[in-house]
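Worked example

This section walks through a single chain of length 292. The input is the sequence exactly as stored; nothing has been trimmed or padded.
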Amino acid sequence: MIETHERPRHLVGLIGAGIQASRTPALHECEGAANGLNLLYQRIDLDRLGLGPDDLPDLLRAAERMGFCGLNITYPCKQAVMQHLDDLSPDAEALGAVNTVVLRDGRRTGHNTDWWGFAESFRRGLPGAATARVVQLGAGGAGAAVAHALLTLGVGELCLSDIDPARAEAVAESLNARFGAGRARACGDLRADLAAADGLVHCTPTGMAKHPGLPLEAGVLHPGLWVSEIVYFPLETALLREARRIGCRTLDGGGMAVFQAVEAFRLFTGVTPDPARMQAHFTQMCPDVAGA
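Given that input, the structure is written out below as tokens.
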């Protein structure tokens, strides 16, 4: 936090690849203004800078020297950043992924607000959804957080599918250690698992503006599924479009984007934000949310 002649200035940022379209900076700046804060939120786009996860040590040092009070972390750095931090919140340590770093008193503390953001979005966006068995695509940094949220919400069995089967196995093992044996497993036959599932959650970059397309064959979807995305740019991904076409209940990634930002804002500033106001501002930025 930098002192100015008028008000304390909170300088925060987002580290990730291909983040120019992110709504997170505007969400934080508008909520800061509503709370009388002078908050500036900067994008640190690895693609534009020609950098990658190996450059995190230099980026973190630069942020500290320039007076940043915190950073959000997104793909592909949520796991790589952990080795460069001094402390981890219990959630971040359990999940093995960090999306929020607080820089304070010379220390770097990693938090994970993704899991709470997804859980809050799911509660509001898919009330009454059946959760006996759920399939999740993607077991990376965001996937680990969403999997934790799903079991916290009461999913009976979570089947994890990842391009790296060993990663899916590792996340399932970690979940079972926290939530009880048999609550999670790596997918065997994805088609068969989906046929028996109540819902599908998608946690890979596929469907983002820079990674268009479907993350699985359209033919494995069926009307008995609800389908949830974490991608929010665009809100209408190819997966959600196909799911709606065949009659599935759907949930876009906008709610998770808002509610993870709610908790990150509190961690950065010490001020409790207004979730309804942040949701309304997100809707103004993305007018198709209401119809999504």
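What to look for: The chain is about 40% helix and 20% strand.
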